[in-house]
Every structure is written in structure tokens, then in C-alpha cells.
């Protein structure tokens, strides 16, 4: 019976793959048709009337009539939607909101996920990802054996219990199509638990004996789970626990630091790593070929794309449509979605590797950030946490730089802070603990990753001698007002360079 279901699903996936081929061959018309359809559907919403959606005949008019938006620009309207108001950004009432890390004024952002957005963007993007997998692995048995997906948890808003928020992965798991549920492990109650320590323990016991063929999730939490399973089973290689596992679907953070470690978990030569780009705002892209580490843009899944030229860490003040991008250049993404985000800037920066088809690599964020573990820590978060800590302990800081220390086998990750103090703390350990606490209070994603020290342990502070940063910048011929110490970096390039400079001097 399971083999029959797999065969039937495979037929549908062949249809989905043909649809992917269609929009790859006709990308511009696909995007234009999508934009006009969304404008027509939303013309009677508050935003539709505000910006005259019924009088927008083409993209140029659309770009002229609607300004570019950031979260602060739509926060109040999203709050109205959270409270149950209909027809604000998108027709009808929106009951789902995806939570991601916040801005300078918000601990968390809540992104609307309309029914259309859930079905025709996030879930549709998942089907497209699986359709591509079945093209790569024709004998795949995702709908015959079991798959495991690491997800978050869900909660209701205190001010409106009828509205639900959580990680986009949790929203997708809760709304998983019925055909997929028999082939998913563990049970939904365990998958959506909010106690991560208990979730990992329970998941490990439940899935260690399952016939897992595909699994997915953010690498950090996935590694914590795999280590727990190996501890329970006494095995040294996950291939002995899940001999049928052939596919790992990952996204959310840069996978390069983790690939070798995952290869140690699964030593099979034909093991497949599939990258996806499923953000809180939408399912944007998926890796098409094994021998490329870039991804095709999903162009008919409820997201209309524009791009802001982004050079030397400076954004332009205008956006261009898809047909205006150039290979090798870097752009900040602008999206219009079937959840009611109109010319919205999620903060991601991409580089085009191809325009036939349109393929991208994620280059980072428009602001300094660390997202090595899915924590999405922004420089505004670290600035405020550090200032609060210094005030509490009567400490002053000249400058600082932060980078991730990546997870290794049986060793959790952390953030390493290089700080040049003007006035040292009496107890560096106390300073570390308070700084870590304050950062958790400001950033909910960092707080989640710090849960019970499972994925991230307490940040580590290395105090630098007075003048270290100045001397390092001087050695790079980067003295002057336009040159600054990089506060946050998503890799260890700058921190290792500073540490090497200190050792050699």
C-alpha cells in the first residue's frame, strides 16, 4: 500500500516539476501575471484603497504608487490583523503569524501568513522541493517510509486567542497535508513541543527505530538530535541507525561550516544535501542541481520579487524588477506576497549566479548580523544588550566584535565576543552571564537557541588590550571615519584575523 501511495505521489510530483520548468522558461510573464492577480484580489482591502490598487495597470505604476516598506512601516497594520480585523493588508481574516527576530523596537516580528500564503507559497514550495528531489533520486521513498522535520512550537496571542503565532516550520507542520502525515515522524504533539530539551529527548527515543529516509531542519538543532540518538543507541554512525536515510533538506543558516560534520554522521557517497530558502515571509528558492550550491527562485508561488542594488554595504534608494538584475551583482530582496506584504524588505541580501534560469546565493543581511545557528542576532540587539550590561556593572567599552564558534561533535556552539574595555568588569564571568541574559531578553530567536544549552552555550568574552582594534585597523590601512571595527560577522574571518594579529604582536 505504501509503495502504491509513493507511486501516485510521484505522478503528481512529475506534474509539479513540469510547472517548475514552465516558469523557468517564461519567468518575466509569470511574475507580471502574479503581480496583477494579487493587486486585483486585494483592491478592496485597506491597503488596496489607500494605494489605488484598482488603478494600477502595470509594474511601473505599481512601483511609483507604493513606497518601499520595512517592518516598522507595517507593524501597526499587522497588529490590527492580529486583533482579528479583516481586509487590512490582504482579503479576509488572517489567523496565522510567523515569528522571527525583531528590530530595534521589537523583540519579535510577526509576519502574516494568510491561508493563500500558507497553501500556495509555503506548502507549494515544499512540494516543489520534493518534486526536484524525486528528479534527482527517482527511487526516493519519501511517501513509502518516514521523514523527519525539525520544527518549532505554536502559541496563541494573549490579546486574541483566535490568532496563532510560531516558527514558520511549526505552522507548516500543523497544517501538513493529510497525505503526508502517515509518513512523518515523530507524532505531531512531540514535534510542536515548546520545551526543546524535552522535545529532543523524546524525539530521539521515538525516531531512533523509525525507517527514516529523509530529514530536514536547521543544522544546529538537527545535530543536537543526531548526537542524542547516537548517545542512546551507542552507535558511532547514523547510517547504522537509519540505513535508508539518503536526503537532508536544510536551510536557515549557512551550511558550509556543517557539511563535513554531516558527512561524518552519514558516510554514504550518494547522500544528498538539498538547500531550501523558506523564510518567515515566504518560500523563496530551492537548490536545483547537486553540483551547484545556488538556488532557483520560485516565481509562481505567491511572491513577486524586486531587488535593490546593494554595493559596499550601501543600499540604493530604488528597486528594480527581476528582468533588470545582473549576474554577479548583489541585491537586497523586496517582496510582494499573497499574505499582504507590499514592496516589503525582509532584510536578506542575495547575489545572482544566473539569469537563465534565475538563480541566487544568499549573501547575508542588509544589516550586520549573526545567523550561524538560526538566531538572527542583529547589531542593534548586541549594542543594546552590551549597553545595558555595562550600566548594570559600571563598566565601559571602547569597541567590540562578535563571531560564532561553530558546533562540533559533542561540543555546542556559542558566540565569541572580543571586547576592548575602557573600564574592566570586576568579574568577567558575571559580565558574560549578564550580557547573555540581556541578549536573550532582546532577541527571541537567540533565547530559543540558548534553551538548556542544547544548541548554544553562554557567550564567551575575550578582553583585548587597550588600542588593539586601532592597531589592527592601522595594520589594514583602514584608519579613518569610514572604517569601523565589524561589530557582527556571520563567519570567523574578522575575529580570527584579529586574534592572529594579537598573537603576532
Number of domains as seen in the coordinates = 2
* Beta-strand content: 15-25%
Strand count:
22
Distance between the termini: 69 Å
Radius of gyration: 23 Å
Shape: globular
Q: What low-confidence regions span 5 or more consecutive residues with pLDDT below 50? A: none
Q: Helical percent range?
A: 25-40%
Quaternary organisation: single chain
Number of discrete helical segments: 17
Give the overall pLDDT as a whole number.
90
Largest sheet, strands/sense/barrel: 13 strands, mixed
Specify the structural class. alpha/beta
Secondary-structure topology with pairs:
Blueprint: H1 2-25, H2 27-41, H3 46-50, H4 59-65, H5 71-82, E1 96-101, E2 108-113, H6 115-136, E3 146-149, E4 154-157, E5 160-166, H7 168-174, E6 184-185, H8 188-191, H9 196-207, E7 212-216, H10 219-233, H11 238-241, E8 247-250, H12 256-265, E9 272-279, E10 282-287, E11 295-297, E12 303-311, E13 314-315, E14 320-321, E15 330-337, E16 348-355, E17 358-365, E18 369-370, E19 377-378, H13 379-393, E20 396-405, E21 414-423, H14 428-442, H15 444-449, E22 460-464, H16 468-475, H17 493-504
Helix pairs in contact: 1-2, 1-6, 9-10, 13-14
Task: Describe, in short, the structure shown.
The protein has 505 residues and is an alpha/beta fold.
Amino acid at each position: 500500500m505504501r509503495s502504491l501511495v509513493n507511486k501516485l505521489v510521484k505522478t503528481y510530483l512529475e506534474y509539479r516539476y513540469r510547472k517548475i520548468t514552465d516558469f523557468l522558461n517564461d519567468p518575466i510573464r509569470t511574475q507580471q501575471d502574479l503581480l496583477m492577480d494579487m493587486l486585483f484580489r486585494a483592491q478592496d482591502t485597506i491597503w488596496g484603497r489607500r494605494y489605488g490598487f484598482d488603478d494600477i495597470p502595470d509594474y511601473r505604476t505599481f512601483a511609483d504608487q507604493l513606497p518601499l516598506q520595512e517592518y516598522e512601516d507595517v507593524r501597526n497594520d499587522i497588529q490590527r490583523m492580529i486583533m482579528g480585523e479583516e481586509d487590512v493588508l490582504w482579503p479576509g481574516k488572517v489567523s496565522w503569524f510567523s515569528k522571527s527576530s525583531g528590530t530595534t523596537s521589537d523583540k519579535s516580528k510577526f509576519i502574516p501568513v494568510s491561508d493563500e500564503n500558507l497553501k500556495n507559497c509555503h506548502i507549494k514550495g515544499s512540494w516543489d522541493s520534493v518534486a526536484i528531489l524525486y528528479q534527482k533520486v527517482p527511487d526516493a521513498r519519501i511517501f513509502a517510509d518516514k521523514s523527519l522535520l525539525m520544527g518549532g512550537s505554536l502559541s496563541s496571542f494573549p490579546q486574541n486567542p483566535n490568532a496563532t503565532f510560531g516558527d514558520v516550520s511549526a505552522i507548516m507542520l500543523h497544517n501538513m497535508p493529510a497525505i503526508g502525515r502517515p509518513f512523518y515522524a515523530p507524532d505531531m504533539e512531540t514535534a510542536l513541543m515548546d520545551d526543546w530539551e524535552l522535545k529532543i529527548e523524546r524525539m530521539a527515543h521515538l525516531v531512533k527505530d523509525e525507517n527514516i529516509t529523509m530529514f530536514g531542519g536547521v543544522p544546529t538543532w538537527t545535530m543536537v538530535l543526531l548526537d542524542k540518538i547516537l548517545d542512546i543507541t551507542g552507535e558511532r554512525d547514523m547510517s547504522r541507525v537509519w540505513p535508508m536515510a539518503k536526503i537532508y533538506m536544510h536551510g536557515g543558516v549557512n551550511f558550509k561550516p556543517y557539511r563535513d560534520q554531516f558527512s561524518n554522521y552519514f558516510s554514504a557517497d550518494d547522500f544528498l544535501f538539498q538547500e531550501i530558502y523558506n523564510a518567515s515571509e515566504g518560500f523563496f528558492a530551492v537548490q536545483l542541481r547537486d553540483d551547484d550550491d545556488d538556488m532557483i527562485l520560485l516565481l509562481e508561488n505567491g511572491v513577486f520579487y524586486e531587488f535593490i542594488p546593494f554595493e559596499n554595504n550601501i543600499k540604493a534608494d530604488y528597486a528594480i524588477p527581476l528582468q533588470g538584475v545582473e549576474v554577479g551583482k548583489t541585491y537586497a530582496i523586496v517582496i510582494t506576497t499573497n499574505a499582504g506584504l507590499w514592496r516589503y524588505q525582509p532584510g536578506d541580501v542575495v547575489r545572482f549566479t544566473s539569469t537563465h534560469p534565475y538563480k541566487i546565493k544568499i549573501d547575508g543581511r542588509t544589516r550586520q548580523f549573526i545567523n550561524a545557528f538560526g538566531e538572527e542576532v542583529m547589531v542593534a540587539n548586541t549594542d543594546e544588550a552590551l549597553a545595558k550590561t555595562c550600566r548594570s556593572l559600571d563598566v565601559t567599552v571602547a569597541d567590540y566584535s562578535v563571531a560564532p564558534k561553530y558546533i562540533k561533535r559533542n561540543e555546542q556552539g556559542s558566540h565569541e565576543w572580543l571586547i576592548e574595555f575602557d573600564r574592566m568588569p570586576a568579574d568577567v564571568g558575571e559580565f558574560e552571564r549578564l550580557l547573555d541574559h540581556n541578549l536573550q531578553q532582546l532577541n527571541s530567536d537567540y533565547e530559543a537557541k540558548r534553551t538548556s544549552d542544547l544548541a548554544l552555550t553562554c557567550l564567551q568574552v575575550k578582553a583585548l588590550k587597550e588600542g588593539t582594534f586601532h592597531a589592527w585597523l592601522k595594520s589594514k590601512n583602514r584608519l579613518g571615519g569610514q572604517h569601523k571595527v565589524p561589530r557582527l560577522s556571520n563567519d570567523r574571518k574578522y575575529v580570527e584575523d584579529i586574534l592572529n594579529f594579537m598573537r603576532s604582536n
